[in-house]
Amino acid sequence: MEQVAIEMNGIEKKMRHKMIGPIDLKLPKGYVIGLIGENGSGKSTLIHMMLKIVFPDRGSISWFGKNYPQEIPHNVRCQIGFVSEKSCSEEDNLTAEEAAEFRAQWYPEWDQMYFEELLGKFKVPRNIKLKKMSKGERRKYEISAALAPRPKLLLLDEPSSGLDPFAWKLMIDELRSYMESGEATILLSTHIVDEVKRLADYVLLLHHGKLHGIAEKDSLMDNWKEIWVSGGTDLAEDLPGIIQVQQEIQGVVRMITTDCLHTEQILHDSGIPVLKTRTLELDEILSLWLKGHLPAGMQSGKGD
Ligand SMILES: Nc1ncnc2c1ncn2[C@@H]1O[C@H](COP(=O)(O)OP(=O)(O)OP(=O)(O)O)[C@@H](O)[C@H]1O
Questions:
Q1: Torsional class of 42: left (φ above 0), alpha (ψ -120 to 50), beta (otherwise)
Q2: What is the residue with the minimal CA distance to atom 7 of ligand 1?
Q3: What is the phi-psi region of residue 292: left when phi exceeds 0, alpha when psi lies from -120 to 50, beta otherwise?
Q4: What is the distance between the alpha carbons of residues 86 and 10, in angstroms, rounded to a whole number?
Q5: 45 CA: nearest ligand 1 atom
Q6: How far is residue 222's CA from residue 73's CA, in Å, rounded to a whole number?
Q7: Residue spans of beta strands (DSSP E) within 29-135
């Protein structure tokens, strides 16, 4: 990961009942990073600190390689798109067109044609106030408005909340095609594992305000596997990344490994047959990761 969109070092924030951090994190440029964590784990707070809506008590943040101890300068801030978990009440009494006109003054790169195209694709109702729209309709406007200035960095806090399955699919397709167009980076907070599966290159896991690490999604899918091997449970002692082991029947042991590529290589070199393998579902992987089983080679709290 050479190029970094946002870097956090030693970030800490005391919330009412919870401490967020310390967090050391590098968001790799040019990728989609899925931000996963249970309710209250600190996902929104983390995103708000990246926008200076919330100020950390300790630590430093850099945007595209630069620190801004005061405000994020306008020319940098307008390269960052944001969809908030909650709608912006200041836009309540505006129509989508009026709100866009207001936003366009702020963003020099605002692409009105692209915005109109997105409103059309998402079937966002025209000429009605945003507060009169359904939750999903308003969400579709917000996603369109966040994409319209073609930001280099998109921070999306549960963007699919309220979307019907058709709009959800459309959002996935739009974000995918947006990524194809250049060097954009997307941080996407979500509770929908399928969203991460379809969109994310990296998965960033937060738990009780602590970073459990950032891992390549494909590497997780390639390495976290259930395998059935001829032999007994003592086999596990010599294999890397084994987090569960069980004698399934006489002569067959079932194991879960976080390092399948190495595990299979060692078994192969030892002449021990692998009888069957199953790739874990992403939700199984995340739940084991949340329980403290780390991806191969990762140390606890590692964010780069
Ligand atoms: N304005 C606030 N003042 C004090 N504490 C807050 C505030 N907002 C959030 N918190 C607390 O900070 C912690 C993290 O909240 P945050 O909203 O960042 O979590 P989240 O991971 O986004 O949750 P969810 O998945 O439910 O949206 C929670 O324990 C919450 O109670």
A1: left
A2: 15
A3: left
A4: 27
A5: 18
A6: 41
A7: 32-37, 58-63, 66-67, 80-83
Give the separation between CA 256 and CA 230, rounded to whole angstroms.
14
Question: Would you place residue 1 in the very low, low, confident or very high pLDDT band (cuts 50, 70, 90)?
Answer: very low
Distance, in Å, from the CA atom of 47 to the CA atom of 82, rounded to the nearest integer, reads: 9
Quote the CA–CA distance of 253 and 246 in Å, as a whole number.
6
Which atom from ligand 1 is nearest to the alpha carbon of 18?
29
State the pLDDT at residue 50: 97
HSE at residue 275, side-chain half, CA atoms within 13 A, is 11
User: Distance between CA atoms of 201 and 1, rounded to whole angstroms?
Assistant: 12
Q: What is the ipTM of this complex?
A: 0.95
Pocket lining for ligand 1, CB < 6 angstroms:
15-18, 37, 39-45, 85
Q: Rounded to an integer, what distance in angstroms lies between the CA atom of residue 192 and that of residue 35?
A: 10
For residue range 102-128, list pLDDT tens digits in order. Answer: 999 999 999 999 999 999 999 999 999
Atom 12 of ligand 1, residue of closest alpha carbon? 15
d(CA 207, CA 40): 9
Look at strands 66-67 and 58-63 and give their pairing.
antiparallel
Q: In terms of DSSP bridges, do strands 58-63 and 4-14 run parallel, antiparallel, or are they unpaired?
A: antiparallel
Mean pLDDT of 272-276: 94
Q: Distance from the CA of 40 to the center of ligand 1, in angstroms?
A: 5
When the pLDDT of each residue in the chain is averaged and rounded to a whole number, the result is 93
Average pLDDT of the segment spanning 231-242: 93
Tell me the pTM. Answer: 0.93
Ligand 1 atom nearest to CA at 158: 27
Band (pLDDT 50/70/90 cuts) for residue 295 is confident
d(CA 18, CA 4): 28
